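Here is an idea for our session: we take a single protein and study its fold together. Once you have written the record down, we can walk along the chain together.
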Amino acid sequence: MRSATPKVLHTLAGRSMLGHALATARGLDPGRVLVVVRHERDQVAAHVAEVDPHALLADQDDIPGTGRAVQVAMTALDAAAQAAAAADTTVGSATHAQVQGAVVVIAGDVPLLDAGTLQELLEAHHADGNAVTVLTTQVADPTGYGRILREPGTGDVLGIVEEKDADDAQRAITEINSSIYVFDATVLRSALGRLGRDNAQGEVYLTDVLAIARADGGHVRALQTDDPVLVEGVNDRVQLSVLRAEMNRRILEGWMREGVTVVDPASTWVDVDVELERDVTILPGTQLHGATVVREGATVGPDTTLTDVEVGERASVVRTHGSLAVIGPDARVGPFAYLRPGTVLGESGRIGTFVETKNAQIGTGSKIPHLSYVGDATIGEYTNIGAASVTVNYDGVNKHHTTIGSHARTGADNMFVAPVTIGDGAYTGAGSVIRRDVPSGALGVSAGAQRNIEGWVLRARAGTPAAAAVARPSVDDELSPQARAERGRATAAAADVPPTPPPALPDSGSTAKDSAR
């Protein structure tokens, strides 16, 4: 993989390859699950503890090969069986307790293997009374895989030959070993004790168990799958990308058959743990990750990425990035919204264009339409937050909370300096910096009275395009006589001609427009 990350920890569809293997194993409802670790042992062990805390671990030593991996696995499983027997006071001596029954062995780099296929393999093993049952498939190019050697007539498996040990005739065989097996525990334990390293790679081959079991009189048979991708392994990032795309295709196909509309599967990515309900519509460029849930009738996309987000019935989420958030039924989000963790938008609520929210509880019917940041806040029902508003929640050391009640109306360009509370039904004026609580039903205003300095542009910015625009005739007949006089003086000064006298003020019986006429 050419990576600092161990191969089995590379991800597809929201899980590591090892995570997929563990989920598949758990699908059999096994007595125990054990993971053999070696390369980058600590990273892999930590990941196992995170995704499957009940799985056992066994450390492979420096002796290479899959056979050695299963040797240490069986030793650990038998030790676990002895410990369990010792803890059970209803049984006698636990000294000789060992794992009994079927032992299933799968690889950690075969991510598309599913529990259904594994269950079929296990059922075939029991039905035929086999010592060993191996999952195989046919491929056009078997290069790199072990070849299945069958007995003419019966079709029973004689053994498996690795490519480096195969002759030309054996290399021509297109039925390959998937490295997925079911063993009888007693047969496996006996054969493992007789494995050697006399092969081209100097490894302990697990595949040699099949020939030993057959020589001991056991039945060794194969179950062949007609879906080669199920057993395809990953050895580089090219193969990983191919299987990632194939897994996504299968996930989307499954959801479409359940009643979900995916407008453009080629640009849509959905993780394996995502839940979609019927009549959901997924528009192009959408990625749904983690434990995201989209309820019936909702529309997501285009160009939306949601991670661990719940989208309510009939909601619409457009060009939005969100994580660890809840969007209520009939709510609307976006375009260009950013929902950070802790955002909860109530039923029929609205988070609009260029709005960022974090740790915000937004009540039923409330709206934050545009250009705002709402963090560490609680907003009641049917409240409207004016454009370009900010909850100023951080003082450089601590985060503080803003509370805005129900049916409130806050003005545009408001700064709410937390901690602060705006009561139910309260209003705030545009451009206000709200530093103190606004009681219910009150109007909070912090801006001073506006003052216009007329003629300032012509005096202070003479020679600029702005001044030229003021000086030329325009449709500003509503200017006061004083302002028109000021403009005339500035124009005359610029032309070096005597200024025009100011117009006479109208008498008490006429209007300004009459005087202008």
Q: What stands out?
A: The chain has twelve helices and 36 strands. The first helix runs from residue 17 to 26. The CA atoms of residues 107 and 152 lie 29 Å apart.
